[in-house]
Design goal:
mainly alpha, 77% helix, 256 residues, elongated
Length: 256
Amino acid sequence: MKKYIIRIFTSLIIFAMMGCATATDVRQAADLIRTDNELTRLLVEVRPVDQDAAATYLIGVASHAKKEADALKEIKDKRADAIAYYRIAATAFWRSGESNVANELFTTTNEGISLCKQMDNQQPDRDCLFLRLVIPFAGIESVAINNIPKLLADVDFNDEDMTEKEKKTMKQIFTLLSSSKSLVQKILKLEADKSLLSHPSMESYYSRNKKKAIDYFEGNASEFSVKVDEFYKNLGDHEPTLGITKEDASKLEKLK
């Protein structure tokens, strides 16, 4: 009788533990959906009309999602959920537009990508694909903030007045375009990712933003090359002090 009671008691404990685990799983799944929906709401409804408020809320969402991801990443059967949280966190940090969360953006993205690699063929390809896109696209946006077209417009070597300020501006543009080129090349490498084909919406997102990145780079790189040609064309007897050769400008234009 005593053994029978012990067995019943043990079964009740196991059942209770299973019930608790199920309740925890349900709460966690609900939180993941809720957090993802909140990210979408902020990006679609709030950010277009109030970027400052959206930035604050997005950082809050990102911090929550990262905390959840960090808590789940060591649990084998929760790694896919952890990756989803990392994708949410990385997106929210990126779309906040705040430079002071750049380190968090890189850390979050790298943690997510590392977890994707651990899961190998079992990785949630949509989330993992997006995580690989975040840093290059965020980097392109960061470069664009410097307004390369305006910097180029401020340089005129046809007026026979090659100022030191203009030369300094050209060097700044060369550095920005070099960074932009590296990021665009990373974006282009993702074309070989077969997971794009299984997610039409992601393929559309990738193609659309890839084109924007290429157009932005090629347009500015071409204009930059023209400015370099103008410098040497109007140089006359002056010493070539630009610090950028026509060959440098020509190489910069080539993405492949």
